[in-house]
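Query structure, 299 tokens:
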């Protein structure tokens, strides 16, 4: 009888021991989930309002470029609000904003863009406010594109200078997951800042690609041998993630897409940006999953 009781006691002790031992693992797992959900987002959208969106110069019978951009922005906004609604009220401290470089001459566009700089925290995160974000972004970004197209004054795209002088101050905050989404065809050109340093430049055009002989099968070898690319920006942007959407190469060169992506890949890597993707222009329905996967990847 004593032996039976002793065995039962030992079995009970063993069950209690292993149960207690497993408990920290469960707690660790729960903590990891909570940490992921409580992550603070700082999402920036940089819009290229150059003549790539012109209905006259670049008409697209399937879907106009500006409509694609609006579709991409809609998805970004939806992911942002989805993230907010997954957090507890006291954990909310997130941002989303929209930029141009250079700023358009139209004061109405600049005024609207300032209204799209949204900060959400526990003090203002009402249900009504969270539910209004998607509609606000959809309506106001649509107005920006319509105004730009109506003005028909496209001053170019100075993305290089945005990285050189603005991205660190405007798109990177300590304690946040900093994500920059760039809507561009991949080319860069602004008359106000054209710089060359040997075979490097702060701009990229179809003409420059042709001048550099990157329109033949051996373009990669030429790119490396001539040390081509964007001028290096001496910054450590390892705390920034970049998603480039809308690459739309000229149809005159079958290697143009690869060349554009190589310029961008090399440049982003030199700035120590580890998480980045460069995607072609596509219908918003096809880009929806790509955008969501990129933003939610770490969750």
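Result returned for the query:
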């Amino acid at each position: 009888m004593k032996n039976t009781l002793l065995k039962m006691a030992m079995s009970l002790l063993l069950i209690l021991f292993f149960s207690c031992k497993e408990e920290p693992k469960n707690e660790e797992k729960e903590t990891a989930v909570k940490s992921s959900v409580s992550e603070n987002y700082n999402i920036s959208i940089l819009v290229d309002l150059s003549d790539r969106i012109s209905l006259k110069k670049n008409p697209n019978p399937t879907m106009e470029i500006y409509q694609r951009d609006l579709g991409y922005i809609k998805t970004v906004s939806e992911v942002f609000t989805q993230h907010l609604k997954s957090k507890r009220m006291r954990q909310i401290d997130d941002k989303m904003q929209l930029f141009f470089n250079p700023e358009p001459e139209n004061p109405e566009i600049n005024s609207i863009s300032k209204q799209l700089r949204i900060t959400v925290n526990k003090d203002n995160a009402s249900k009504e406010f969270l539910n209004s974000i998607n509609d606000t972004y959809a309506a106001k970004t649509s107005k920006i594109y319509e105004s730009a197209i109506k003005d028909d004054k496209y001053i170019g795209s100075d993305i290089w200078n945005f990285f050189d002088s603005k991205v660190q101050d405007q798109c990177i905050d300590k304690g946040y997951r900093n994500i920059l989404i760039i809507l561009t065809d991949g080319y860069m050109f602004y008359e106000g800042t054209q710089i060359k340093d040997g075979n490097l430049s702060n701009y990229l055009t179809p003409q420059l690609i042709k001048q550099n002989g990157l329109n033949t099968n051996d373009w990669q070898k030429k790119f490396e041998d001539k040390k081509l690319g964007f001028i290096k920006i001496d910054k450590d942007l390892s705390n920034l993630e970049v998603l480039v959407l809308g690459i739309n190469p000229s149809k005159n060169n079958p290697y143009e897409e690869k060349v554009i992506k190589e310029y961008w890949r090399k440049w982003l890597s030199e700035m120590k940006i580890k998480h980045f993707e460069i995607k072609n222009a596509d219908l918003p329905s096809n880009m929806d999953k790509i955008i969501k996967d990129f933003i939610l990847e770490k969750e």
